[in-house]
Amino acid sequence: MDLIVHYDQDSVEKYAENTLAAFQGAIDSGVDVLETDLHITLDGIIVINHDTTTGRVHDKDLVVSQTNLSDLKKLTNKQDSSQEFLTFKELTQWFTKQRNDIKIMLDIKPFNSKSIFAKILKDLLDIKDDLQFWNSRIIFGLWRLDFYEFGYTTGLLENFQIINIAISSEISKQFISYSQSVPKNYKLSAISILDVSSWSSDFKKFKKTVLDANNISLYLWTVNHPDDIKKAIQLGVGGIVTDDPVQVIAEIKTAISRGPNAIIYKEPSLLTFEGLKSNVIFYLFKLFELIVLNEVHTYKIVQLVLGYTVKYVINHSKREK
């Protein structure tokens, strides 16, 4: 199982996000993959930042794509003033000095231009002119299918590990379908989806019949709560994206100590606060999913969700008896 760290402002370790200190802390804690977000500055430099603007983390609020690197370098990190605004080249230069088994997952947000692929490859080869070295260490995380198609038709993603990052597995199905039409060295290796989207028996079936059948790993994000970590481990995921790697490692060790067939997580009763909360969260997500993905009339969606909720309560009550 891959342990992927994504430190943000809510991280337990309280590192300043997307800084070398945070990445070093992640490696020291025992992670397998570093996850980060890329942007292109006004003067065409790839930089590391989660948001499209800088105000949440730095002392001035600038739009990254409308600002030159020299001005971004003048910013002060609110949490750790010793950490400067990081470029992709600076990150990869530091990365070449780390353990050989560490990887970087590049979260290619949809607002980026497709030109970022060529820029990424240029930066990588400028740092170390060895494409095979980078093929085994860089993961491209794509949100949009047309980015995947572009990476294939141009040859820019050849031999790189490719994953789909999505809110819902419904989106990932498009990537999986396309992956079946491309050569082996462009195949989708994993999907990384919002944790709550996996909280159903239908998803467990999807994992078995679609993901496992096509040798596609499952990553869940962002998993921090102990119960959610246990649930992910029991589901048999290929990777967990977290802000709290220490907690995840502890839960993995506990699960291993109990043996391969042990039940490490049991769904709480709907009559408990935790059971009620998790069901409310799940059905709110399903409502969101239906609205966004299927564009169904709102009334019909609410009616459907309420129907599922009532059905669940009845079935759950029978099991409790």
Radius of gyration, taken over Cα atoms and rounded to an integer in Å: 21 Å
What is the assigned CATH homologous superfamily of the largest domain? Phosphatidylinositol (PI) phosphodiesterase
Q: What global shape is seen? A: globular
Widest sheet, order of strands: 1-2-4-5-6-7-8-9
User: Any idea of the CATH topology of the largest domain?
Assistant: TIM Barrel
Hey, roughly how much beta strand do the residues contain? 5-15%
Largest β sheet strand count, sense and barrel closure: 8 strands, parallel, barrel
Please give the domain count.
2
SS elements, strand count: 9
User: By helix and strand content, what is the structural category?
Assistant: alpha/beta
Individual helix count: 12
CATH A-level architecture of the largest domain: Alpha-Beta Barrel
Q: Summarize model confidence as the mean pLDDT.
A: 90
The poorly predicted ranges are 313-321
The CATH class of the largest domain is identified as Alpha Beta
Helix and strand run: EHEEHHEHHEHEHEHEHEHHH
